[in-house]
Amino acid sequence: MKLGEGVEWSLHCCSVLGTLPPGVALPGARLAEFHDVPASYLAKHLQALSSAGIVESVTGRNGGYRLALPADEITMLDVVLAVNGDEPAFRCSEIRQRGPSAISLEHYVRPCGIARAMWDAESAWRNSLRNTTIGDLVGELDQSVAPEQIDKAITWMGSVLR
Amino acid sequence: MKLGEGVEWSLHCCSVLGTLPPGVALPGARLAEFHDVPASYLAKHLQALSSAGIVESVTGRNGGYRLALPADEITMLDVVLAVNGDEPAFRCSEIRQRGPSAISLEHYVRPCGIARAMWDAESAWRNSLRNTTIGDLVGELDQSVAPEQIDKAITWMGSVLR
DNA sequence: GTCCCTATACTCGGATAGCAAGTGTCCGAGTATAGGCGG
DNA sequence: CCGCCTATACTCGGACACTTGCTATCCGAGTATAGGGAC
């Protein structure tokens, strides 16, 4: 079980976009510069976010990305699934239907206990992520980020948005 | 986020081993045959379970694998972590310490909200898996497996264990 | 001064290589058993 | 008939190829803007 690096980047990007004034877009290249990550690769994930309807792209000059919904209506789960794919982590291959003790297919009506337990665990994981929105992340930035860094970020943002 | 196939195999193997009389060992090749999976590859995961102290190997003729602990003392989480690695799925690369708004290292004392939320979700996942033991899985086999299949499995097992 | 047109520069989007990890396989080291031999 | 010894066959354990998916990159299509020119 491993989560791709793009998940972290995407969540940070959404947080940044959530701090912008409504309607203002930030280019992908600027988002990459702000986080010091490869711009070309970040673009791939921003594309996924765009396809999922989480961010929307503004083309042309002074274009970029901006949140497609209010920050409070975007959950962390939405972002994670958009970037990492919405397939469940555990996939039951029904190996109980194979081997020397297999019986006719019609007897397998109830999922096996292993699959149920794994899916329950994944539901717990998803529910936890569903309980935090991008708006929550933005709201607690002043608690986890030093004021000095916030000032620098605001200054940089002002020079970029122009 | 994707869980390797070996996780499923390992959990099923532990369930099977949990049904055996105490002290009896089942060779990896028979476990593979019972589940109809590649024996050579399953051996790799059984090795991991052995290293983790979940199963113990009995060498030589009539050897094989058996649970190293009572089935009620082995949680699903133990098995999953042994096979899939115990690294957290989400790894914070501290990208907030990079880019144009970075400040001196000493200001980053509290983990960022994103990492905290991701870790909380993973804790929920782990806690859920911790609440189910191999013994629980064995105990509910008669609810999720048809009696006919149980009979066939017992018959096969008897012919193999000799 | 105002409006329109064009060229520009900037944006996103998808198609294209490189690499790590999971997947699959193999052969060698070690051991408990089965059978034969001697007493 | 009983005990010992040896050869065997079977076990696990680690070292070696292959495939999938994540990582990283590039170039082309499209558009809002900026500037210049005409009215």
Task: Quickly describe the structure.
In chain A, 54% of the residues lie in helices and 5% in strands. Chain A is built from eight helices and two strands; from the N terminus they run H-H-H-E-E-H-H-H-H-H. The first copy, chain A, has a two-stranded antiparallel sheet with strand order 1-2.
Walk me through the structure.
Two copies of one chain form a homodimer. Chain A is mostly helical and 162 residues long. The first copy, chain A, is built from eight helices and two strands; from the N terminus they run αααββααααα. The first copy, chain A, has a two-stranded antiparallel sheet. In chain A, β1 and β2 form a beta hairpin. In chain A, α2 packs across α3 (39-51). Chain A is elongated and about 70 Å long. Chain A starts with a helix and ends with a helix. The interface between A and B is large, with 65 and 66 residues.
Pair of chains with the largest interface and how many residues each contributes:
A-B, 65 and 66 residues
Strand order of the largest sheet of chain A: 1-2
Rounded to the nearest angstrom, the radius of gyration of chain A is 21 Å
Oligomer: homodimer
Helicity range of chain A: 40-55%
State the shape of chain A: elongated
Beta content of chain A: under 5%
Query: Helices and strands of chain A: which structural class?
Result: mainly alpha
Please give the alpha-carbon distance between the first and last residues of chain A. 42 Å
Spans of chain A of at least 5 consecutive residues whose pLDDT stays below 50 are none
Q: If you average the pLDDT of chain A, what whole number results?
A: 95
How many strand segments of chain A? 2
String of helices and strands of chain A: HHHEEHHHHH
Q: What is the helix tally of chain A?
A: 8
The description of the largest β-sheet of chain A is:
2 strands, antiparallel
